[in-house]
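User: Hi! I have a protein structure encoded as tokens and I'd like to know what sequence might fold into it. I'm fairly new to this, so please keep things simple.
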């Protein structure tokens, strides 16, 4: 029997759905073609008294799933702490910046109470967690229905959203001690720490996490520590699981991952570090409007990049049932859900789970997020999802083996630059928009993109790309400057936003911008920089002119070497400069070329495509000219309004996923460069049907907002 493509939904969380619904609901899932289902192990629900752990109810759920041929993912939700532990371990409560303990209670994702649990930096809290994990794993780890364990849901540091700005945690003595230990390992000496923080320090006991808004270096360290601490807790739990079970360990990132999180400094998680400690990695995505398909694509490409070769999943795709409680927006059209589903698949995921099967029955998310109606019956969205699953599992071996074609373009994600952004603004929206806008430009051209973490760069990695872009690169990781310079010398093209490495790795202002010697690579230095006032007019040497919208900053340059002016400001001074070094070139922009194209800024409620952009926009032309000059070429040539991906199967076959983003039908041809195929089948319908393919390419006939999925044979 062939391995199925993991396809299904979240189902059990705490006390809902009720046990009397399980058998019928699992039968409904099977009828919809589901292969997998997730169930939460909420600590406070399953261990209501010390040592009295309700393993039987979980085993009963697994037995029912096994009878229906369904695989189960069990997720440890230890943020839902038992009341007995809350009472007996008050010293382990989380503490806010004012020194006030935070009393655990119910929350949207934990209506059964006990959230956010106990601070695991306390040894006794960690011990209680591990005792519960061990009891569940040793007694259930060999069940044939079990597919994977999740040690933590969307690992991140929780945030107090009632305070303004949102409060961060934790300031308890155990966490303060752990922070000092982290700083000792990072800096070695108090003198080195003091130089970074800009203050004299005489004793380690005097080192405290910051509580006020102002400052950079101490805040960046504090939030980086929090991210690494969360990663450490996931690793610790995973080690307990692996000691007693051979079933894979998986986890997934919150809200599309670090790249898309606007509150990354507060929530404190690094996808690349998290992915290293699990066997399968994934993300969640809850689009509300059709244009959010672009951000969904970015979340999947960054997740794939962070997974670093591990299988990755769309672990929670919103079912299109929007709103909560009395604030209801209703279901989205089923064709939207189909587009979001195929958007996930075309980026190479190896599992697709929806959030969730039934509507939530309790808590602030009541009434929302379900594939079914109130009684658990399938909605049109469930039917649309089932059609995707049917195609995936008719050709599971191809989809599981297929990989996206190699990217020629890479965008650099800098965690420390995000922390600097957050320390300044208490959000990372500028950094997110800078990267997401560049991504949008290539997404709508169907040009594959990788997202690279600046702490994981080397010359061999960069050599795979024709163009590398540095969005909002204010504080890159130590040593990156040498890797970037070597990339350019060896023939690469580097494009950077302004304020490049303005801060040293210790977050101290450098003596020249671009900093760390990069002024020599780019052949210029910054003269002045200020906030961009509205649209910035640029002109190109060939006579083209227009404006760049949305830029946060505007810099002026003093060339220090022979450079080419790529674009000039209205006063004739250089705005974008190109400097040739070795076999490559380094291009430095005085404005953020991507920000105006960030999906949340540029799309609104409409899927604005490149050819329908504002007529006087020049940012896209500068970026895409740079890509073209670097030799970036798209494999697929597509009709207007269509985006697509080519997934390569090791046996020579290929899968084309094409999406029509317009409400009107489209007919045309998908031309595939440098590849020849003898046959094609369209595989996204109720049954496979032959598709026309010839010397000109693959014939395409898509309804408005429709998808076409084709399996091509060489």
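Assistant: Happy to help. Inverse folding works backwards from shape to sequence: for each of the 714 positions I chose a residue that suits the local structure. Here it is:
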């Amino acid at each position: 029997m062939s391995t199925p493509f993991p396809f299904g939904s979240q189902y059990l969380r705490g006390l809902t759905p009720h046990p009397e619904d399980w058998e019928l609901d699992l039968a409904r899932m099977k009828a919809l073609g589901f292969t997998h289902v997730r169930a939460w192990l909420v600590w406070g629900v399953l261990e209501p008294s010390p040592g009295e752990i309700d393993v039987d109810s979980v085993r009963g759920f697994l037995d029912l799933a096994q009878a229906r041929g369904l695989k189960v993912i069990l997720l440890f939700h230890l943020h839902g702490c038992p009341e007995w532990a809350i009472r007996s371990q008050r010293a382990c409560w989380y503490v806010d910046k004012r020194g006030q303990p935070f009393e655990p209670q119910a929350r949207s994702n934990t209506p059964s109470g006990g959230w956010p649990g106990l601070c695991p930096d306390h040894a006794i809290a960690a011990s209680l967690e591990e005792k519960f994990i061990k009891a569940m794993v040793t007694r259930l780890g060999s069940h044939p229905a079990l597919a994977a364990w999740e040690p933590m849901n969307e690992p991140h540091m929780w945030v107090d959203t009632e305070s303004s700005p949102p409060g961060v945690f934790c300031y308890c003595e155990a966490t303060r001690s752990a922070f000092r230990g982290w700083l000792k390992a990072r800096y070695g000496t108090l003198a080195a720490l003091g130089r970074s923080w800009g203050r004299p320090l005489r004793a380690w006991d005097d080192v405290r996490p910051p509580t006020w808004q102002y400052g950079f270096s101490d805040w960046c360290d504090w939030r980086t520590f929090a991210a690494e601490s969360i990663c450490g807790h996931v690793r610790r739990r995973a080690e307990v699981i692996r000691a007693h079970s051979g079933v894979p360990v998986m986890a997934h990132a919150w809200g599309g991952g670090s790249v898309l999180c606007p509150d990354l400094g507060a929530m404190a998680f690094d996808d690349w570090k998290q992915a290293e400690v699990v066997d399968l990695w994934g993300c969640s995505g809850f689009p509300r409007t059709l244009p959010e398909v672009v951000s969904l694509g970015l979340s999947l490409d960054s997740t794939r990049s962070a997974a670093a070769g591990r299988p990755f999943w769309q672990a929670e795709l919103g079912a299109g049932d929007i709103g909560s409680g009395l604030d209801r927006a209703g279901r989205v059209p089923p064709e939207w859900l189909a587009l979001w589903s195929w958007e996930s698949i075309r980026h190479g995921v190896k599992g697709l789970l929806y959030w969730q099967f039934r509507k939530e029955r309790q808590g602030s998310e009541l009434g929302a997020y379900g594939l079914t109606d109130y009684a658990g019956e399938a909605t049109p969205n469930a039917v649309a999802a089932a059609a995707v699953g049917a195609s995936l599992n008719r050709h599971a071996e191809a989809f599981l083996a297929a990989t996206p074609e190699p990217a020629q373009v890479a965008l650099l994600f800098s965690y420390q630059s995000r922390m600097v952004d957050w320390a300044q603004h208490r959000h990372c929206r500028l950094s997110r928009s800078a990267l997401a806008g560049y991504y949008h430009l290539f997404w709508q051209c169907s040009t594959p993109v990788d997202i690279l973490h600046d702490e994981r760069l080397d010359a061999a990695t960069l050599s795979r790309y024709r163009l590398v872009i540095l969005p909002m690169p204010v504080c890159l990781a130590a040593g990156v400057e040498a890797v970037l310079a070597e990339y350019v010398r060896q023939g690469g093209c580097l494009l950077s936003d302004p304020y490049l490495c303005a801060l040293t790795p210790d977050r101290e202002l450098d003596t020249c911008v671009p900093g760390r010697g990069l002024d020599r690579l780019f052949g210029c230095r910054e003269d002045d920089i200020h906030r961009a006032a509205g649209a910035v007019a640029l002109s190109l040497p060939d006579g083209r002119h227009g404006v760049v919208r949305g830029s946060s900053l505007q810099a002026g340059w003093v060339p220090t070497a022979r450079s080419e002016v790529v674009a000039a400001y209205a006063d004739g001074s250089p705005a974008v400069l190109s400097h040739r070094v070795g076999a490559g070139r380094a291009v430095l922009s005085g404005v953020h070329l991507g920000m105006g194209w960030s999906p949340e800024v540029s799309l609104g409620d409409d899927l604005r495509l490149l050819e329908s952009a504002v007529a006087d926009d020049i940012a896209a032309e500068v970026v895409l000219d740079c890509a073209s000059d670097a030799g970036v070429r798209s494999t697929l040539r597509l009709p207007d309004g269509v985006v697509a991906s080519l997934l390569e199967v090791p046996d020579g076959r290929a899968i084309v996923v094409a999406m029509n983003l317009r409400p009107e039908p489209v007919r045309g041809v998908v031309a595939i460069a440098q590849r020849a195929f003898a046959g094609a089948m369209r595989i996204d319908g109720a049954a496979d049907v032959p598709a026309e393919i010839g010397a000109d390419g693959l014939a395409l006939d898509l309804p408005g907002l429709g998808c076409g999925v084709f399996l091509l044979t060489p």
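A useful reference point when you look it over: Residues 671 and 697 are 4 Å apart (CA to CA). Feel free to ask if any position seems puzzling.
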